[in-house]
Amino acid sequence: MCKDCGCTIAGGTHHHDHDHSHSHEHSHQEGSASHQAAHETLHHNPQLNDAKTVSVIQKILDKNDHEAAHNRAHFDSHKVLGINLMSSPGSGKTTLLEHMADIADFKYGVVEGDLETNRDADRLLAKDIKAVQIQTGSACHLDAFMVHKGLHNMPLDDLDVCFVENVGNLVCPASYDVGTHLNIVLVSIPEGEDKIAKYPVMFRAADLILFTKTDLLPYFDYDLEKEKETARKLKPNVDILEVSTKDEASLKAVVEWINFKRRMR
Predict the structure, then answer these.
(1) For position 24, what pLDDT does the model report?
(2) Residue 16: phi, psi to the nearest 5?
(3) Which residues make beta-bridge pairs with 164?
(4) Strand, helix or coil at 110?
C-alpha cells in the first residue's frame, strides 16, 4: 500500500484541495462500483473498522466520487465515452492501445497514469495518439482529481473515446471511481491462473475482462476456461474477450465491443 493513497483504506489521509476556475453541475453517484468496492474492503478488515477511520475514508471517497461525477460531465458534454483500463503491471494496456490505433474507426486519447516517467505516453504519442501523462509519485492508482487535471489537456472535442490507463495494480484502482463510464480489466496469461480469485474486487468492477497474450497459452500451464468460470462467479454478466496482438481479429473484437458501448449510450 502506498503511504498517501486512499487505499489509505489502509489508514492515511489522501486528499486534494482544488479551486476550479469553472463551474459544473455535479451529481454524486451513490452506489458506484468503485465506492462499493472500497466499502467492501472496509467491512472485511477489522483493523479499519473503528469510527474515526471509517469517517475519514468516507470523506475521501465522497470527495473523489463528487469529482468523478464532474469528470463524467466533461465526457458527456463532449459526447465522449470514458473507459478506465486497469491491470497489474505488464499485462499489456499500453500495447493494446498502440495496436488499436491501426484498426480503430473512432478517435481516442489517453490519460496515462504512472508513478514516474513518461515512457507509456511517449509510446502512444509516437503512434499519433493524443496522450497526457499523469505522474502519481508514490500513489498506486489514479483518482478522479488526477484524471480531471489530465482532461484539461485533452482535446475532447476531437475525440470519440478517452481511455484512462490506470497505474499497474490489481488492488487500489478498483476502489476509486475516476469518472469514466466503463471499466476494462486486463489479465495476461504469464501472470498465472490465480489472479482473478486472489483479487476479486478488481474483477467485480469490470465491464469487460480481456485475457491478453493468449498466443503464449501453449507455453504456460493455464486453464483459460476455468479462469473464465471464476470470473463469471464473481460477476455473472461480465463480458470476456481473448486478445493477442499477433491476432488482428481479436483486436477488432475489442474495437467492436467499444463501438457497441458507444452506440448504447
Answers:
(1) 42
(2) -135, 140
(3) 84, 111
(4) strand
- 191-195: long-range contacts, CB 8 A cutoff, minimum separation 24: 191/88, 191/91, 192/220, 192/222, 193/221, 193/222, 193/223, 193/226, 193/227, 195/88, 195/170
Q: How high is the pLDDT of residue 10?
A: 37
* pLDDT beneath 50: ranges in the chain: 1-6, 8-31
The CA distance from 160 to 82, in Å, is: 9
- Return the residue matching grid coordinates 480469485: 197
Listed in sequence order, the DSSP H helices in the chain are 33-43, 51-77, 93-100, 119-125, 144-151, 195-198, 200-204, 224-234, 248-264
Residue 29, C-alpha cell as written in the block: 453517484
- What is the pLDDT, as a whole number, of residue 114? 82
**pTM attached to this predicted model:** 0.82
Q: What is the model's pLDDT at position 120?
A: 93
C-alpha cell at 20: 476550479
The pLDDT assigned to 57 comes to 67
pLDDT at 27: 40
The position carrying cell 460531465 is 73
Helix (H, G, I), strand (E, B) or coil at 151: helix
Terminal Cα-to-Cα distance of the chain (whole angstroms):
36
Q: Give the sign of the dihedral formed by CA 174, CA 178, CA 182, CA 188.
A: negative
Taking a C-beta distance cutoff of 8 angstroms, is the pair 258, 106 a contact? yes
Please give the grid coordinates belonging to residue 24. Answer: 459544473
Q: Which residues pair with 187 in a beta bridge?
A: 211
